[in-house]
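Structure ticket #2291
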Amino acid sequence: MRAVIAFLWLLHWLPLPVLGRFGAGVGSLLFLVLGKRRHIALTNLRLCMPELSEQERRRIAREHFRSYSRSIFERSILWWAPEARVRKLIHVEPAVPQAAMEDGPTILLCPHFVCLDVAGVAARVIPVCSMYVPQKNAAFDALLRHGRERYGPVRLVTRKEGIKPILRALRDGLPYFMLPDMDFGEKDAEFVPFFGVPAATLTALGRIAGTTGAKVIPVVATFMPNYQGWRVRFYPAWENYPGDDMIAATRRMNAFIEERVREAPAEYFWTHKRFKTRPPGEPSLYE
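Resolution: structure written out below.
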């Protein structure tokens, strides 16, 4: 692992167009050799985009592998390049909502696009709180912590700690950088449609917003064309959210993410088993 980290460190010296093309090339190879992950991605695309041809879905899956691999290698810039270089490569639209983030509790809703770490960097104009999954490898764990902490104070909360540290952080004025759109099982989740398919979806966004009165500001990071950098889009705070119906609030979240996925379909996390947890009696979708 230390050798891998050293290799990544060397890569951060490369110009972004060279590094990005290298990462995309590796992704093309991974699409061919990682059959299990390719199967998951194609299954997800068949479920979510049945209107496309198999050839079109396979093209998106291949591009996803290229995008995902590219994002991993480009993290070397986020982790080690001078901050001035990093900021120059991030194009924020329309602007970081710092005033809104400082004006009462704020949840930054960040769906699982491959460039999500870039969104985290763009948001770091003030201290934030974020969920963190400790890594088994000590060297890799230290690297990920370094990447999250190098841009200023951040309060990292593990999933085992539960929701209380997050509520305290929101009360302390720290925006919560939240990524709730993965299958974490049935606990604290409801089966809510995602592209029309029932998906075990955390209701935490609506529950936390309702409990704390936090505003929800979505943020999505994607690649800019021609390896020019990354685009980070902050959306207006949602009005009348969450309301009284947590399932409806969760459906609203999924619908918003669906719209963003259709705008950049190759950059969403298709290799994750989004539909792994099934309603009682339903068979696995990934066999």
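Closing remark: The mean pLDDT is 96.
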